[in-house]
Amino acid sequence: MLTAHELTKRYGDRTVVTDLSFTVRPGTVTGFLGPNGAGKSTTMRMLLGLDAPTRGHATVAGRSYATHPAPLTEVGALLEARSVHPGRTAYHHLRALAHTHGIPRSRVEHVLGLTGLTDVAHRRVKGFSLGMGQRLGIAAALLGDPATLILDEPVNGLDPEGVLWIRNLLKSLAAEGRTVLVSSHLMSEMALTAEHLVIIGRGRLLADTTVTDFVRESGAGTTKVVTPEATALAGLLTAPGTDITTDTPGTLLIRGTDAQHIGRTAAAHGIPLYELTPASASLEEAFMDLTRDAVEYPATLQGAAA
Amino acid sequence: MTMTTLPYRVTPARVLRSEWHKFWTLRSTWITLAVTSALTAAMGAGLGAAYDGTGEGGMDTVMFVLLGTQFATINLGVLGILATAGEYSTGQIRATMTAVPRRLPVLWSKAAVLTAVALPLTLATNLLTFPLAQSFLTGTDLSASLGDPGVLRALAGNAAGLTLLAVLALGIGALLRSVPTAIGAFIGLVMILPEILAMLPYAFVDDAVRYFPGKALEALTTAQPLPGTASPGAALLAMLLWTAVILTAAAVVLRRKDV
């Protein structure tokens, strides 16, 4: 369990994170979303005690990260910037980290195997591809078999196979009861991986919600129906959990049921349909709507639309 | 989570073990140490062989034989700087401080590892270089043996001084967090600043400069104390103080500043 209590971070006169509070619970993957420059990395660094908050505090399992007797067993972290000496081999990098906690060689070999690095373990990190570097970062994060994982943009620069691997890894780690906080600037990626969402923009909390709620509120999952018998169809479809709105006469926007059910109901009652369109899941758009005012350097197109 | 039976825990001895492991698993460490010893011995032998026997006046025999340790000063200093500032330039520091978030044990361990390596190495190198160079100097005014007064003390004093300078450089690296800046500051403090200050026409500056790290190292390296230099004991004390002050400043910065 990770908790941020009114975290504020100022660098000189630039405030990067403002009064940010949220809780990350075990057993699910929590997506930490925000446009570039929103303060995600800074927040993660504050959770790990690498950066001291200007105000507020962060706790891991109820106390600050630095006060844990075996920090690597509490939190495993993959930070966005590479955190490895390029002249050392993957094996020795992990061995050196393991020594600080008395973690045995067998565990080092285990995490190397888990991340598929066994064959390159004795190569110097300097020659690693981006994907191998990410895998090494994840191996280091798993070293202490931690209860919590904090991963900053883990899929950045990975090939599709690597992305899939990370997605499944995160889900299985959460399924084991661990707390998983993973940052991204891509809503679409988080929709596939996370169940819970913490969304920030310009260092402020914008939303603390579940993916399901976000999807529902974002308008994704809406089906547009055009029919001359709108009122009759709406009457037939009314049910708990189904939400029907209309903006122009003859057009219904239906949420909470799918196109198949709507089509069958209409057919069963002889209601003609001119259009039956499930809205393509525009999660990314909903996310951009939410963060539009909070992007640091908005593109002119967005600026004009706002 | 089951917290009761966790065998893993950070202890000072384990952090030391980790830093020891880090030190030896970089190729640069081996190269630097080998080059340092080889240059000292080669310079000693070369100078001994080239010496024509006509006294140039007042050159201390140990100082002469160990002229190659000028390179050792820089080499070992760079090694110390790489141990600290090098972690910032590579990003390794984030992994290090995530594993040991209390931070200070890392600094102490790095200093301890460097001391444990540099002191025996420089001592052994000096004890080897001196007889080697002396084998060419028989019959000259610089001829001396290990048993002569002050010789062993100067050879050991030089090793101690070089080690302290390396740890001082390590502290500068931790303070400045940039390899090139730290190397510049180290060379400036040890080699350039004393020469500039010595040109000032004030007697008290002259007295103070004797206790600057570079000058104190020279005082430690002479078998017979030269006029206008600090006594070996005072020189060693001065170097200990310099190193302690810089390391303390590095510790304060490490505790306070974001990684």
TrEMBL record, chain A:
SUPFAM superfamilies: P-loop containing nucleoside triphosphate hydrolases. InterPro entries: AAA+_ATPase, ABC_transporter-like_ATP-bd, P-loop_NTPase. SMART domains: AAA. Keywords: ATP-binding, Nucleotide-binding, Transport. Pfam families: ABC_tran. Residues 2-227 form the ABC transporter domain. GO terms for molecular function: ATP binding; ATP hydrolysis activity. It comes from the Bacteria. Belongs to the ABC transporter superfamily. PANTHER family: ABC TRANSPORTER, ATP-BINDING PROTEIN. This is ABC-2 type transport system ATP-binding protein. It comes from Streptomyces paradoxus.
UniProtKB/TrEMBL annotation, chain B:
Keywords: Membrane, Transmembrane, Transmembrane helix. The chain crosses the membrane at residues 30-51, 63-86, 107-130, 150-176, 183-204, 234-254. The keyword Transmembrane applies. This is ABC-type transport system involved in multi-copper enzyme maturation permease subunit. The lineage of its organism: Bacteria, Bacillati, Actinomycetota, Actinomycetes, Kitasatosporales.
